[in-house]
Amino acid sequence: MQGKMDCHGLSDRGKAREVNEDQFLIADLNKSMRVHQTSLGIEDQTRLFGGSQGKVLLVADGMGGHAGGERASTLAVDAVTTYLLNNMRWLFRLHEDPQDDFLDDLKSALDQCQSRVSAEAERTPQRKGMGTTLTMAYVVWPRLYVVHVGDSRCYLLRKSELKQITTDHTVAER
User: What is the pTM of this model?
Assistant: First the structure.
């Protein structure tokens, strides 16, 4: 990935809840390999990394007042991470331009997330109705892709001007 981007995450439980129901993830996507054995001067089991292929910034805000908000946000981050690592073909696509396929993969990541949260709610009666928001920025320089469900907002800061780039999805908005 070209350019330099400083990222930092912080979460706070707020004033209304006893526990923090939020989860976040900031990660670089890299090609890598684990060396099992070689005649080169590299230790066995060394992991070698290629350059950064992209960056993921993700936040899931467990819905306060709903049973299992903290668990829902944890499942959401885990489901998206698992999908990115094991199902999405980002590693081989970044220098091609099959943008529609890429967008379909991002939507599938959200579907996977919804399936995991719904399945947990079905298995655990006390968590029925649990929910979370999810906002993910996926940076493949020079492009930014944003996937968003709920009311955790994504903003763009450019030339000291802050602009909201997502639309809230709430019952009140309907």
Answer: 0.80
